[in-house]
Amino acid sequence: xxxxxxxxxxxxxxxxxxxxxxxxxxxxxxxxxxxxxxxxxxxxxxxxxxxxxxxxxxxxxxxxxxxxxxxxxxxxxxxxxxxxxxxxxxxxxxxxxxxxxxxxxxxxxxxxxxxxxxxxxxxxxxxxxxxxxxxxxxxxxxxxxxxxxxxxxxxxxxxxxxxxxxxxxxxxxxxxxxxxxxxxxxxxxxxxxxxxxx
Length: 198
Description:
By secondary structure, the chain is mainly alpha-helical. It has helices at residues 2-43, 54-60, 62-99, 105-155, 182-197; strands spanning 49-53, 163-167. It folds into two domains: 1-46, no CATH class; 48-197, Protein Binding, DinI Protein, Chain A. Strands 1-2 form a two-stranded parallel ribbon.
């Protein structure tokens, strides 16, 4: 086992040395090429990026607030329906349990079948509602994303930005606020939304 580890360590040291050699040997050859590329990039206007603050967008985009509100209503209605079914199930289960000592064998079996069916119906309904909410939420996110992407294609048709990122807390460690185009995007998306409502 010691010999195996020794061989592995020797191989790793050789590989690190080889990579070190390649890095510094090829670095001298490519410096001029990289500098030329940077020079040409600056001549064409440079490499520009921008970002959108997604929290701000979600808090100020009218269409997003509307469909989020619809989703929350749908979710609340689903929770009420499931809650009602659970209450009905628990009430019936308690009734049958209280009668349990006075039931004969056949009645007990029928009661168990009824309880099992109610439980199965409840689980099936809950699964169907969860799937429905998940699909609705996925479509909502896809719709919002398409609207933002379509707006940004028009917004950046002059090719001013090479990349436009979405900023979410914890995703980037540093951001230059001069690259923030969120207010422009919110205004543009809200204008489009207002025009489509008319």
